[in-house]
Design a protein that fits this description.
By secondary structure, this protein is an alpha/beta fold. Helices cover 41% and strands 16% of the residues. It is built from ten helices and eight strands. A five-stranded mixed sheet has the order 6-5-4-8-7. Helix 5 links the parallel strand 5 and strand 6. Helix 7 runs antiparallel to helix 8, helix 7 crosses helix 9 and helix 7 packs across helix 10. It starts with 12 loop residues before the first strand and ends in a 6-residue tail after the last helix. The N terminus is likely disordered.
Length: 259
């Protein structure tokens, strides 16, 4: 049942008016409908307005609005998000196509989840492509965008964090693919671990733990690489947090590389 609207006082309400009714807002922020037509008041003196009669009278038809169901909304989002999980092989194929179409030379250092696949973590899924490149960031990003692949590219991966990468990480990287004008490389396992500890999320720690275990990295190797990263970093409170993360991680790895 519709509740009677409160008494309308001319000096209390202001709002937007139409020929037959207006939507009014009180000083306290309460909305109400006000009719501009003459209203006959009941004998008991209580002023009430039947909102439905205002909506359906005097040429004001009610137009229902169709709201999509949850299932329809999910299906719509799925159509707008055609991306499936990427594999390193798929990305390398696209990079090969990029160099063939543009004639440009490209060097790529994988630094994200795609690198984990190359390290042997096949269950690590991702929908984007993270890499340090030697080449045109803008041109490659546009090319990947045309193929519906989000990319986070840089020419200086060390600059992604206040904590620097250990100096010489590019020189220690190993070749994954070598073609006439394309080279795809991987970080040395200990450098990859440091890159993950720089962020230190739960997922990053899981990734670092997988690589450390697979390549039998010792806590001493990780601490040595972390010390080199700290020495190359600007002074910042983030270094303290990084150091704590490294120490906790090294305790889980153990001195002989066995978690």
């Amino acid at each position: 049942m519709l509740k009677p609207l409160r008494q309308l006082e001319d000096n209390e309400y202001f709002g937007l008016k139409s020929s037959s009714m207006s939507i009014s807002i009180s000083r306290h922020g309460h909305p109400s409908l006000r009719s501009n037509r003459h209203i006959k008041w009941p004998v008991d003196g209580i002023r009430t307005i039947d909102v439905c009669s205002l909506l359906f009278s005097n040429g004001h038809p009610f137009h229902p609005i169709r709201v999509p169901s949850i299932i329809e909304t999910i299906e719509h989002l799925q159509r707008r998000s055609p991306l499936s999980a990427l594999t390193a092989e798929q990305v390398i194929g696209l990079l090969t196509r990029y160099t063939s179409e543009t004639g440009a030379s490209l060097e790529v250092l994988l630094v994200g989840a795609l690198a984990l696949q190359a390290y042997g973590y096949q269950d690590r899924l991702t929908r984007d492509f993270d890499a340090e490149i030697v080449g045109s960031v803008d041109t490659l990003t546009e090319f990947l965008s045309r193929h519906s692949i989000p990319a986070d590219l840089t020419t200086n991966f060390s600059g992604w964090s206040v904590v620097a990468m250990p100096p010489g990480y590019r020189d220690r990287a190993t070749n994954l693919v070598v073609q006439s004008n394309l080279r795809v490389r991987l970080l040395a396992p200990v450098d990859f671990v440091i890159s993950k500890l720089r962020r230190g999320t739960d997922l990053d720690l899981d990734d670092a733990g997988f690589v450390a275990k697979r390549y039998h990295l010792t806590s001493e190797q990780i601490r040595t690489a972390a010390a080199a990263a700290l020495a190359a970093s600007p002074k910042d409170t983030a270094l303290f947090l990084f150091n704590k993360t490294v120490e906790l991680f090294c305790k889980s790895v153990g001195p002989d590389g066995n978690e």
